[in-house]
Amino acid sequence: MAHVPASERRPQLIRAAIDLMTREGVSAGSTRAIAAELGVAQATVHYTFGTKKDLYRAVVEQLTADVMEQVHSSAPAEGPFEEQVRAMVDGLWESSVGAEGRCVLLEEFAALALRDPDLQEIMSGLQKRTEETATAIISGVAEAHGLELALPAHELAIQFLAGFDGLVTRYLVLRRAGEQADEQAARQLDLLVATMIGLCLGRPARTS
């Protein structure tokens, strides 16, 4: 391939790594395989990232950025508080379970992190940043509507993310087992959103 500046090569390699790992799993993401995916020398991958840990970190950060971008883009500029929350949750759900296996890849990283200290550090950092982002989103939407949250935004963020992650994992497991999980998932997501809004506003959750 023609010479490409490092500033351009890095995102190309990250995308190549994501595409490869999405198809074949994290364990398939060797520097040799990633280089072959993009059609560059293996040394290019080593030069760009230094260590596999640096590569994994870049992949996880890009996956997370992609999800957050979809969440922000799905939020309507105007509308009632409940509608804005629902729109963002729907965007998060779609980016999590419908983005060509990207969420499965993040789940795989999280599972591997239980026994890999390097990945543990990466995923722990991701968890903190995700909670901070969710906290900022909740606070921002509430402030835009002049609402005083019934609980601290950070507590609401943790509660929501824990429930959402559980629903995503359940859905992916059932779907991969060949079960029809869409209807159940939609109902449970409705309940999660209603609970979240109820916690934000300090009132009982309603699902209808």
The biggest beta sheet, please?
Answer: none
Strand share of the residues? under 5%
* Residue runs with pLDDT of under 50 for 5 or more positions: none
Number of helices: 9
Radius of gyration: 19 Å
Please state the average pLDDT score.
Answer: 86
Helix content: over 70%
Give me the count of strands: 0
What series of H and E elements makes up the topology?
HHHHHHHHH
Cα(first) to Cα(last) distance is: 57 Å
Coarse shape:
globular
Structural class: mainly alpha
Structure commentary:
The chain has 208 residues and is mostly helical. Helices cover 76% and strands 0% of the residues. The chain has helices at residues 6-24, 31-38, 42-49, 52-74, 81-97, 102-113, 117-144, 153-176, 182-201. α2 (31-38) packs across α3, α4 runs antiparallel to α5 and α7 packs across α8. The chain starts with 5 loop residues before the first helix and ends in a 7-residue tail after the last helix. The mean pLDDT is 86.
Give a quick rundown of the structure.
The protein is mainly α. The chain is built from nine helices and no strands.
